[in-house]
Design brief:
214 residues; Rossmann fold; 10 helices; single chain; alpha/beta
Length: 214
């Protein structure tokens, strides 16, 4: 029932912010929610874990996962104030007690003592190419923690480009989870484990991880 309510709230918020295309907004439950929940089949999350959703946008996958996993603590991060305000209103309407929001850039929060290497798990569904994404995520995740990145058919090419970043950052690829969407589209979730403490030089300053990927 709560996912039904989330769907209604997202449709209302989408009219204000245009978070998703008109085609996608009509397929929230059959497409986007299913895609978000696919990580539940493989992730190594446990009750009490702290999870950060990077570039959460309209709250996907963060809100969907927070509804499914009420004994885990979620932080939803985005740099757009309107989106964070929208998520706050939805969290309140849904009565979710396990979600907090963070407004700002990943590069800044990942260097903050309150956020740096404080999370058991990180997620990102549609944020950046993999070399950039791994640099941003590594700053938040504890050594031995996990990161889950949603990708499409070009994931192999992204992994090749990310090989240097994986080595520098200590982000080890554990698994490629392949699954079919209801419309037969093939999707992938890449599971990484952080193997070491991150050098303080990473992530680099605002915008650098995207402009000059490792």
């Amino acid at each position: 029932m709560t996912l039904k309510k989330l769907s209604k709230l997202l449709k209302t918020e989408n009219e204000k912010l245009n978070l998703l295309s008109s085609g996608d907004i009509e397929k929230l439950e059959s497409k986007h929610f299913v895609d978000c929940e696919a990580v539940l089949e493989l992730w190594k999350a446990e009750d009490g874990d702290s999870i950060i959703d990077l570039g959460t946008g309209g709250g996907l996958p963060g809100l969907v996962l927070a509804i499914s996993e009420k004994k885990m603590n979620f932080s939803l991060l985005d740099s757009t104030e309107k989106k964070i305000k929208s998520i706050k209103s939805m969290v309140k309407a849904l009565g979710l007690k396990n979600v907090k929001t963070l407004l700002g850039r990943c590069e800044v929060f990942a260097q903050s003592p309150k956020s740096r290497e404080k999370f058991d798990i990180g997620t990102a569904r549609a944020l950046a190419p993999l070399p950039t994404l791994l640099e941003l995520a590594a700053g938040f995740i504890k050594p031995e923690g996990y990161f889950y990145a949603w990708k499409g058919e070009n994931h192999k090419e992204e992994l090749e480009l990310a090989e240097n970043a994986m080595n520098h950052l200590g982000m080890k690829l554990l698994k490629i989870h392949k699954y079919k969407m209801p419309e037969k589209q093939t999707r992938y979730i890449l599971e990484f484990q952080k193997t070491k403490k991150l050098d303080m030089m990473y992530p680099r300053k605002d915008g650098v991880p995207l402009k000059s990927p490792l």
